[in-house]
Amino acid sequence: MGSAMGERDHSRQRWAARGALAAVALAALLPLVSGGLKGLLLLLAGLVGLALTAAALWWVLSRRGPARMAAAVLAVLAPVGVITLFAAANLIWVVFVSLLLWCLAVWSGRYALRSTGLRPMRVKEYRTPPPQRPFILLNPRSGGGKVGKFSLKEKAEELGAQVVLLDPDHHQDVTALAKAAVADGADLLGVAGGDGTQAMVAAVAAEHGLPFLVISAGTRNHFAMDLGLDRDDPSTCLDALTDGVELRVDLGFADGRPFVNNASFGVYGAVVQSPGYRDDKVGAALERLPELLTRQSGPRLTASADGTTIADPQAVLVSNNAYRMDDPFGFGRRERLNSGKLGVLAVRVDSAVEAAELLLSPRPEGLTVLTAQHVVVDADESHLEVGLDGEALTLPAPVHCRIARRALRVRVPRNRPGVPEAPPRLDWRRLRKLAAAVGRTAAPARSRRS
Q1: How far apart are CA 88 and CA 105, in angstroms?
Q2: How far apart are CA 367 and CA 388, in angstroms?
Q3: What is the pLDDT of residues 243-299, one digit of tens each?
Q4: Cα–Cα distance between 31 and 22 in angstroms, integer?
Q5: Strand 315-320 to 391-396 pairing
Q6: Residues 6+ apart with CB under 8 A from 435
Q7: Which of 199, 285, 400, 409 is the most buried (most CB within 10 A)?
Q8: What's the longest Cα–Cα distance across the chain?
Q9: Residues in CB range of 401: below 8 A, 6 or more apart
Q10: What would the DSSP string read from start to end of 148-182?
């Protein structure tokens, strides 16, 4: 009976893979079948429209004055023009049906790959006793005042934590406060603040082997997101004090300075230094980008990642574990936080043509994506502007980035709403193999844990 059920599972797997490939083929062929030569011309017009849009966006970012305004108009008119052409040919329905077919292909392909058992590795959870003397730092300004809105101080104190409310009008050394708490006997360090503040306290926790509590009260809290924490209600993070488990995750360092998310060099590292960046991020970026992208200002970078040299990129992002780049639904998230590898993303775009290639090419020459244990970012200047978890820093060149594997004990609530099982990566080559299979697949269903 088990054999019959297994065969049915493999049959569904094969047909799901075939359905995914069929949906992709139909999505590509539908404009040609429905419109003939006209459909082919409209498909080419769509590709030209995408290229023009990418080029126009490059000009918006790299130009000023009338040229920027004209490029902004073109960035709007190009896609509108393509949609108008399809509508005039009574083929606008083809666009929507093709999009639905692509969605069907993605869903069916993921179903087929999920059933192979080749799923992302899940972080192992460790059950440990609740802390007896937790110490928590709260930044009242973080996230637009979430500390006060959700009564985090009162709730943490009710659970037995010693709480220090940071003074928003005076700079305080959170590293020194955390170390003083450890010396006073704290057996857990927690923080409600931005990712930069979290990284500094996390480094102290890792140094002393103590559990670390993340309270998602920041503006974005990417680290909390990848841990599966509830970013809408940060008070739920306090459940970890009474009903929690521990995760062993990695911690990144740039010349000894910790980061939980990433270190940014080049364009972003320079933009984040702007005095008005905190109040007007878009305005600050548009003010600095023309000179930075056209290399009229800023250092010329060179990055080396485990022996691979990246020459003259405009931007380098070194992350604590790699971000997903292949999935629009999971873009910018990290599947794992314990791989022991830094993610490296480097971009070099020097013209509108290269900007279009970045959008349209499956493997653009100006984009480098890899992983490494050690990354060195050098420049033709003595110092580098760095955005470290969004905080503006200036470090002497070269900057050495490394990762401390599973150095951080993060205590999280046992029940976390943001931790759905990550879908498998779409591997079209494997889908073709599954679709062509006539018997059982070679991949056994299994659960992988780290």
Answers
A1: 28
A2: 21
A3: 999 999 999 999 999 999 999 999 988 888 887 777 778 888 888 889 989 888 889
A4: 15
A5: unpaired
A6: 14, 17, 18, 20, 21
A7: 199
A8: 78
A9: 252, 253, 254, 255, 263, 318, 342, 374, 375, 376, 377
A10: HHTTHHHHHHHTT-EEEE--TTS---HHHHHHHHH
**Tokens 């090419």 sit on residue:** 361
Residue at token pair 């065969």: 7
3-state class (DSSP) for residue 395: strand
Q: Do residues 219 and 355 touch, judged by C-beta distance below 8 A?
A: no
Phi and psi (nearest 5°) for 296? -80, -20
CA distance 136 to 241: 11
The string of pLDDT tens digits covering residues 139-158 is 988 888 899 999 999 999 99
Here the tokens at position 130 are 């609740």
Extract the tokens encoding 115.
């059933």
Query: Which token pair is 344?
Result: 């490296």
Helix (H) or strand (E) holding 281: helix 281-293
CA 190 to chain centre: 23
- What pLDDT sits at residue 175? 94
- What six digits make up the tokens of 35? 């419109």
From CA 268, how far away is CA 428, in angstroms rounded?
A: 34
pTM of the entire structure? 0.84
Contacts of 212 (CB under 8 A, 6+ apart): 188, 189, 190, 201, 202, 205, 206, 408, 409, 410, 411
**Strand, coil or helix: 44:** helix
Name the strands in the sheet holding 383-388, side by side, starting at the edge strand that comes first in the sequence. 367-372, 342-347, 315-320, 262-266, 383-388, 391-396
| Phi, psi (degrees; rounded to nearest 5) at 10 | -70, -35
CB-count exposure of residue 316 (10 Å: 0-12, 13-18, 19+): buried
pLDDT over threshold 90, residue 205? yes
Q: How far apart are CA 443 and CA 95, in angstroms?
A: 36
